[in-house]
Design a protein that fits this description.
The protein is globular and about 55 Å long. It is built from 7 helices and 7 strands. It has helices at about 1-35, 40-50, 75-85, 105-115, 130-145, 155-170, 195-215, and strands at about 65, 90-95, 100, 105, 125, 150-155, 175-180. A hairpin with a 2-residue loop joins strand 3 (about 100) and strand 4. Helices cover about 55% and strands about 15% of the residues. It has a 5-stranded parallel sheet, with helices on both faces. The chain has a two-stranded antiparallel sheet with strand order 3-4. It is of the alpha/beta class and about 220 residues long. The two termini are about 30 Å apart. The chain folds into 2 domains: about 1-50 and about 190-215, no CATH class; about 65-180, Rossmann fold.
């Protein structure tokens, strides 16, 4: 009986966790729909909403440059390589996951960064970083183990504030600087994002991810 109750509670807990994204999606859709119903005010509020996702800091000499994973255009890796070649740090960290057997996105990211002029010996691959929270935990642990104190964080502009929030929460004693890629095509753009399907999808997804991050929901 105890096992049955445990299994049942586990299944119910799993259903609750899976239901959270749907609840947030409905809430975000209602919020955006409500804002779009206000003539004149809508563009200003929606643009401010998108711009609030962005964090940009001044670059400074650091122990490493981190290109957060998840960029299909490799713009994050490109910007990280540029910062390396500008002399901001002597190491570049790229992230990735096992896409299919024998294909790891982290290895592809490393090869691309090396092709841009970063020595292979100075590129570190962080593997199986399936989401921002896991990536933040592994990055801060790696920095502590090696005695590194400051990192430049390169990610997409819409992801920059949440990435820094997650990293600073995991490593409050460490120094992180947000140096996102430019908000120009093909990257996400905040201005009138609701008029472009891809940008709208990324904006709504990022707002949902913020809800998950603040509520410490599903991993």
């Amino acid at each position: 009986m105890g096992k049955i109750m445990t299994d049942r509670s586990g299944r119910e807990g799993g259903r609750a966790r899976l239901a959270r994204p749907a609840v947030w999606l409905v809430a975000v859709i209602l919020l955006v729909s409500g804002l779009m119903a206000i003539p004149g005010v809508t563009p200003v509020l929606l643009n401010r909403l998108a711009n609030s996702l962005i964090r940009i800091d001044q670059p400074a000499p650091a122990d490493l440059i981190i290109a957060m994973g998840g960029d299909r255009y490799c713009l994050r890796e490109k910007r990280a390589a540029e910062l390396y070649l500008e002399g901001y740090a002597r190491r570049v960290v790229v992230s990735g996951v096992q896409y299919i057997p024998g294909v790891h996105t982290g290895d592809h990211a490393r090869r691309y960064v090396v092709s841009l002029g970063v020595p292979e010996a100075e590129v570190i691959v962080l593997r199986e970083t399936w989401n921002t929270r896991v990536e933040a935990k592994r990055l801060t642990a790696m920095m502590r183990e090696n005695g590194w104190r400051r990192a430049l964080i390169v990610t997409s502009p819409y992801h920059s504030r949440r990435a820094l929030f997650s990293l600073e929460k995991e490593g409050p004693e460490l120094d992180f600087r947000s140096i996102p890629v430019a908000a120009v095509a093909p990257e996400w753009r905040p201005g009138q994002w609701w008029t472009r399907r891809l940008d709208a999808g990324m904006t709504i997804r990022e707002i949902l991810a913020w809800g998950n991050t603040l509520l410490r929901g599903w991993e």
